[in-house]
Design goal:
This protein is of the alpha+beta class. It is built from seven helices and seven strands; from the N terminus they run ααβααββαββαββα. About 30% of the residues lie in helices and about 10% in strands. β6 and β7 form a beta hairpin. Bound molecules: zinc ion (ZN). Zinc ion binds next to β5 and α6.
């Protein structure tokens, strides 16, 4: 078992927060508080931090090891259940050896944090919209992904071995996933998108949602963008 200093715990938790904000929040994955009202670390946060050590090079961790770690803060802890709950119920992509996961060989009672960039695969997230509205929306789109056209329940157009599942995707990822901001996308399109774009209601990209996308554009394009912004902001220093 590793001992973690308060600095290390805070540092890892901060990193988790950044990933959560960027990749997981919009799926309804719940970020545990680091510290509770009594100013103690919460068990959920401790388990998450412990599993996220050296991310992305996380390692398999046994329940016994997690329990020993938690007992440093909660000496009476009998058996740590947090890792399982963080996965299935709260949406963190933590796999366990007890659940017959298809991701890797894990012994019974072992856990591993797979990634902080995707939610737990079976996680349904929060239901902001009423089911009736969502069904109505799916119907309006002919039960097809607005971006690639793959049909719900049928083989995906580009991945024939994958059955298409439709997800509520953002029109504008910088706004909440509520009525008026939802289009149906298949998992493949929704995942690839990474919240980079704003769409119109026909699933066409109309603008950037994530300014970092510009970094992978060609230099010529970046120069033209720079010119546009230089003119718009009169060459102002962005750090002022
Ligand atoms: Zn699609």
């Amino acid at each position: 078992m590793n001992q973690l200093s308060d600095n290390e715990i805070n540092g890892i938790y901060e990193m988790i927060c950044k990933y959560h904000d960027k990749y997981l929040k919009q799926h309804g994955v719940k970020l545990p508080k680091l510290i509770d009202k009594e100013r103690n670390y919460t068990k959920d946060a401790l388990v998450l931090v412990y599993l996220a050590q050296d991310y992305p090079k996380t390692r398999k961790t046994s329940k016994g090891e997690l329990t020993r770690f938690i007992r440093q803060y909660y000496p009476d802890t009998a058996d740590v259940q947090q890792a399982r709950h963080l996965g299935a119920q709260k949406g963190w992509f933590i796999v366990s050896g007890t659940r017959g996961n298809g991701h890797m060989a894990l012994e019974s009672g072992e856990y591993k944090l797979i990634t902080l960039e995707k939610p737990y695969p079976a996680f349904k997230g929060h239901r902001i919209e009423e089911t009736g509205d969502w069904e109505n929306l799916e119907r309006q789109y002919g039960y097809r992904c607005v971006t690639c056209g793959s049909e719900k329940g049928k083989p995906h157009i580009h991945w024939p071995n994958t059955i298409t599942r439709l997800q509520k995707a953002h029109i504008d990822p910088n706004k909440p996933l509520i009525r008026g901001n939802i289009i149906p996308q298949c998992e493949k399109c929704n995942r690839a998108d990474r919240n980079n774009w704003v769409y119109d209601e026909r699933g066409r990209v109309i603008k950037l949602a994530n300014p970092n996308v510009i970094k992978r554009s060609d230099k010529e394009v970046r120069w033209k963008v720079y010119k546009i912004l230089y003119q718009e902001f009169n060459g102002r220093n962005p750090n002022e």
